[in-house]
Amino acid sequence: MSTILAGMRIVEVSAFIAAPLGGMTLAQLGAEVIRIDPIGGNIDYRRWPLAPSGRSLYWASLNRGKRSIALALNKPEGQEIARALIAAPGPDAGFLLTNLPASGWMSHQALSAARADLIMLRLTGHFDGSAAVDYTVNCASGFPMATGSGEAPVNHVLPAWDIAAGLYLSTGLLAAERQRRRDGQGREVTLALSDVMLASVGNLGYLADVAVNNNVRAPMGNDLYGALGRDFPTSDGRRIMIVAISNRQWRAIGKATGLAERLAMIGPMMDVDLDTEGGRFNARGAIFALLEAWCGKRTLSEIATAFEGSGVLWGPYQDFGQLLSEDPRCSTANPMFAEITQPGAGRILAPGTPLAFTGGDRQPPAPAPALGQDSDAVLAEVLGLSSAAIGKLHDAGIVAGPLSDTAA
Amino acid sequence: MSTILAGMRIVEVSAFIAAPLGGMTLAQLGAEVIRIDPIGGNIDYRRWPLAPSGRSLYWASLNRGKRSIALALNKPEGQEIARALIAAPGPDAGFLLTNLPASGWMSHQALSAARADLIMLRLTGHFDGSAAVDYTVNCASGFPMATGSGEAPVNHVLPAWDIAAGLYLSTGLLAAERQRRRDGQGREVTLALSDVMLASVGNLGYLADVAVNNNVRAPMGNDLYGALGRDFPTSDGRRIMIVAISNRQWRAIGKATGLAERLAMIGPMMDVDLDTEGGRFNARGAIFALLEAWCGKRTLSEIATAFEGSGVLWGPYQDFGQLLSEDPRCSTANPMFAEITQPGAGRILAPGTPLAFTGGDRQPPAPAPALGQDSDAVLAEVLGLSSAAIGKLHDAGIVAGPLSDTAA
Fold this sequence. Notes:
By secondary structure, the first copy, chain A, is α/β, with parallel strands linked by helices. Chain A is built from 17 helices and 13 strands. Strand 12 of chain A pairs antiparallel with strand 6 (187-192) of chain B.
């Protein structure tokens, strides 16, 4: 958490990864982010993995530091309260972040009638508004066909398009807020998940490579394209990645392994200039043969010792368990992390924002709320409702608090 | 391109993907982004893929819409000009984005002596400042060990951590700019590439799953975890991804394929509730058996016809060539794209920003500059240098224009 955005209030009506990550990114920078959910939770509320308590660790991890209010969004009274929260006055309020169908009461037209300068960010599947998720966007991206060894397409497990979309949303909201301070204008900002994929494929040069060179990138296992890098097994059953992009990094490999002279023989042998990325890429088979033999005779810790302070660019492969148990960067030794108590899950290591601002305003990460945990406080603080009025809304089933959440 | 950030001026001293993407993201929103490179180009200037002209399509794709000035950054006079550009006055200037070692003349201390309210964003490898690249961060993330079928770790080809880091940089710069308007304070904002990875692994619930359930996610090929989804071959040698997260999407599959009754038999047969994500995940083997047989008897176009307007969440697998030649979303039919003339590459399809702001301010994408293309204009406009003074700088080898770039 940070305080850089302290004072901003953002309302989120969302589910799954991208939009919640966009909101959490801003919450971790200090904004007050109020997530509105239907009573009982939205479609992502029971998403796996679950804790033994039944609490979704997925939901809890993507909604840290937010406030939660549960409303009967299927009833006009609940929609009216949601609209009032979204349109609440104040120069640092009037923001809605959503990936749900923005029709009816939640359309930009209906909401901007309540607040003309509303900034509404809306994530869709495709630019025409049709539905898509990370998996159905990723299959079309070209990357699964270029991943692995080539027998069949390999989906990456990281929901990379959702993550990028969430961060485009946080960027877009701050850009629109900056402009609103200048022209007073509200805006609807739309972002299509498949456009995030398509823009990224273009930004990385893959489209130009096809258009200009008619070259369709083929799978190369774990080899880097156009530079030197691959994974190598160690003598103790581990695996490491070694990379050289700069000439300095390339020379460091020769020095740290003691293979400099033999690596140098590869230049004339393969007739390439080893002081260029392309030359090293074209001679990688011979280079890999020497490195594979060297790594295969050494344990991970012996290699770590040999590479320590050498300038070699490398890293060990780790599964999620090894990452948490063995990697000091994934511990409270890293100022981004803190141990928090997450209701329904217990003590867990939680990251804050990876952005560190000078001024020492980096705050420890906050847990995710229980569903409806802040319902009463938000109604009182933002809408100025009396406890009597709030009680009536509970009695009428328009608002719910955490007790209605059996799994929290 | 957009005009939402029109008026902002950002200086970038960068290489490779993350920092250039951060700058390009802001340039595509209308900011003036001046990329400073050493004469002859930075370490990424010849990165593959290359056009027949020798021009890097990688560099050209990651630096669209920027201005380029080439300076002798290894000489005090060149460093002095760079410092003057970074510290140039104006409420909408005073921003530096870099992933290069920020020491000596480029340290925050040295630069903030020239402009006290400088906002400097600095990407590092690890939080301790040590070096890393996407590949050496990714191997440690746990994802390669959970990707593919499990014989060996599979690196994803998408540089996902670089992309996320670039978008954290654009978010962080706008957040710091907002706060500077309030408190007048400059800031150094640091972001470690491995922290972006670690935060993402935590945000997605993988760390909590290990800590709470001692569950280390294992590879499952292209199956979704905790929901229904997998890839299926078609009768004409293509492959599609079918996903059902909501019950509505699940029912749409039964309706569109005509398999509803037989799919319903799987509930009692496998003793699961098919109206839950977890139930469908646990019974996925039987569900996949029916869908595999159905898809295997049909061509991609027959399946597309059957799923048209059905509410089924699906997509075809495409390689980068098919993406460009077959997918209408990857064409000028998509308002994000335009055909541009890229010097050294010719006519190419280029994406603008995926963020669409109401107010019709979406501008067509701009090509990348030739190295040093804007050297003279930037010196005149930003520093007010006379053409005589600029000529002297050229004669002294402190500044270079595009003619010195043999590959442009």
